[in-house]
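Re: that chain you flagged

S.,

Sorry for the slow reply, it's been a week of failed gels. I finally had a moment to sit down with the sequence you sent. For the record, here it is as I used it:
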Amino acid sequence: MSAGLDEAQAAKDGNQLAKIAVGLIGLNKLDTGIPLLEKAIAMGGLKRPDDAKLRLGLAQLKSGNKAKAAATLKGVSGKEGAAEIARLWLQIGGAG
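Prediction finished late last night. Pasting the C-alpha cells below so you have them in one place:
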C-alpha cells in the first residue's frame, strides 16, 4: 500500500487519497485515515467534496472529537443529500 499511498499523495487532486483514507476509516484505522482524508480534502479537485467532508465528520465523531466533527459537518453543503445527512448527524451524534 505504501507505493499507492505515495502516488496518491503526489497526485494533482485528492481523489485517490480520499479513497485510501475512506478505506482505512472503514477498517477503523481512524488515527491514520482521518489525517489522510483531511489532506485529500485540502488537495482539492475531489469529484464529491461534500461526501468526503461528511465521511470526515462521521469519522471525527467516531473518534470522539465532537467539536471538530461539528465544525466539519456544519461545512457540508450540496444538493445531493449530504447536507441533510450532516444535519441529522449533528442532531443525533451529539456534535451540534
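What I noticed first: The mean pLDDT is 92.

Talk soon,
D.
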